[in-house]
Write a structure and sequence with these properties.
- By secondary structure, this protein is α/β, with parallel strands linked by helices.
- The protein contains eight helices and twelve strands.
- Helix 6 packs antiparallel against helix 7.
- The relative contact order is 0.13.
- Bound molecules: zinc ion.
- Zinc ion binds next to loops.
């Protein structure tokens, strides 16, 4: 774990170098808020040591989504005294449903996540945002008072996953994997058309947030988010026309997509999956 670096007054980010995952830290006068917990107990322990270099205050955790590199440090942190873990109400189901395969992926990054080892378990968030009745997946935003500084937790729709949560504090937006820097967006569990809309909503928050900390890579500004949105729109357009041509071999679209082969294939696979579930491939 790299040390926490200041990205704005009282707001920090630290990087886990193997996956370049960002962990966020917002320090108020009474509490600190940690955004995401890494791929396993050893990562969590290392990030806790870095956190304690910055603050001795009690810590509250937010998980941006259910992927292993953002939640599998929870159990170790709970043992270190963290009591509140916040998340979107869909996160527990998503995390439980994918635990077996996610554990394998986690172990490759953090071997302390091997089954049977201490704290190598799924520790689910215990503070879930409240669903808005009748609105699919929408939740009521929450403001966490850290003492002299407030962190806003909110959901802008499905995108990278069905349970993406954003955290805004002190002019900084922690976007989870909705925004990526230095690598392609990951489409495996995504809702690509909705993701484009969510990115549009993020850019509309430009006046509030001048710095965006992506799930992976270096902090960016809103021009990066705009570019990511334009690229994704273009990718969907290309894929949609390939799908409309009803070619059986969609992989022919891979070389003309604006992503590397792995994520181009993941995008095609995901759009096919969603369209076979009766959803439109794109609008
Ligand atoms: Zn992710």
């Amino acid at each position: 774990m790299e040390p926490f670096r200041l990205v704005a007054p009282s707001v920090y980010a630290a990087r886990e170098p193997k996956l370049s995952v960002n962990v966020g830290l917002v320090v108020g006068q009474e509490r600190a808020l940690l955004v995401d917990t890494g791929s396993g107990p050893a990562t969590a322990e290392a990030l806790w040591a870095e956190l304690r270099e910055i603050t001795e205050l009690p810590v509250v955790v937010v998980n941006t989504h259910a992927h292993f590199d953002h939640i599998y440090g929870n159990a170790r942190l709970a043992a270190l005294g963290v009591e509140e873990f916040w998340a979107h109400p869909r996160l527990p189901h998503a995390a439980e449903a994918s635990h077996a395969s996610q554990r394998k992926a986690a172990q490759a990054v953090d071997p302390s996540m091997a089954e049977g080892l201490p704290y190598a378990e799924l520790h689910l968030p215990n503070r879930l945002l409240s669903p808005v009745e009748g609105a699919d997946g929408a939740v009521t935003p929450v403001e966490i008072d850290l003492g002299g500084l407030t962190a806003a937790l909110f959901h802008l729709g499905r995108g990278h996953s069905d349970s993406d949560l954003l955290v805004g504090a002190g002019g900084v937006l922690f976007a989870g994997d909705l925004v990526e820097q230095g690598g392609d967006p990951h489409f495996e569990d995504s809702f690509p058309d909705e993701w484009v809309r969510v990115l549009g909503k993020i850019t509309a928050l430009e006046e509030l947030y001048s710095v965006v900390v992506p799930g992976h890579g270096a902090p960016v500004d809103m021009s990066h988010v705009k570019l990511q949105r334009a690229t994704m729109r273009q990718a969907l357009k290309i894929t949609r026309s390939a799908m409309n041509e009803a070619t059986t071999d969609l992989t022919k679209a891979v070389p003309i997509l604006p992503y590397g082969p792995a994520q181009s294939r993941a995008l095609l696979r995901r759009l096919r999956e969603l369209s076979s579930q009766g959803r439109q491939p794109g609008r």
